[in-house]
Amino acid sequence: MPAPLTFRPLTEADFPMLHTWLARPHVAAWWQPTPTLDELRDEYLPCLADAGTLPLDAPAGLIPYLACEDGQPFGFIQAYRVMAAQADGWWLTETDPCALGIDQSIGDPDRIGKGLGTRMIRAFLDFLFADPRVTKVQTDPDPTNARAVACYRKAGFRDVAVVETPDGTALLMTVHRSA
């Protein structure tokens, strides 16, 4: 039986590892442009003050985490309030204040294709939906990223539409709280 997955808030000490992961070809192909270490600090340092709060309560609207198996980090995953992203031109039609979005990647290419991504996303959905206020979670992979799209579908996401985002064309996918 696989070890349970846990999530811990990203720390400043994790920035070099995250930078290395984001620069690896299997991640960089889909997460462009690859940020510099200084750009990572600029983006995530303000969010670290919110570590330990729930994504809906985070003033910055974004909480970055490391996904861990047996306490060892293997992936990056972040949750954000969808409506908080509207200030940057994202999801302008969203009206649900309790909708969250997620982005993630697995850092080690040797761990891809073994079901770990689906396990990570399912476990993170359980983590997010533990907050009774969360109504839905969305993600937006590149529609040509067949591996990611299949992973999200296995984790319970359903296709909504192909949309244009500030980063280009994306497949908007959602999963709603179970009744």
UniProtKB/TrEMBL annotation:
Cross-referenced Pfam families: Acetyltransf_8
Pathway noted in the entry: Siderophore biosynthesis
Keywords carried by this UniProt record: Acyltransferase, Antibiotic resistance, Transferase
Highest taxon of the lineage: Bacteria
Group of enzyme by EC: transferase
CDD domains with a match to the protein in the record: NAT_SF
Entry-linked InterPro entries: Acyl_CoA_acyltransferase, Acyltransferase_MbtK/IucB-like, GNAT_dom
GO function terms (MF aspect): acyltransferase activity
PROSITE patterns: GNAT
Entry's EC annotation: 2.3.1.-
Keyword Metal-binding assigned: no
Presence of keyword Metal-binding: no
Domain N-acetyltransferase: 5-178
Name of the protein this chain belongs to: GNAT family N-acetyltransferase
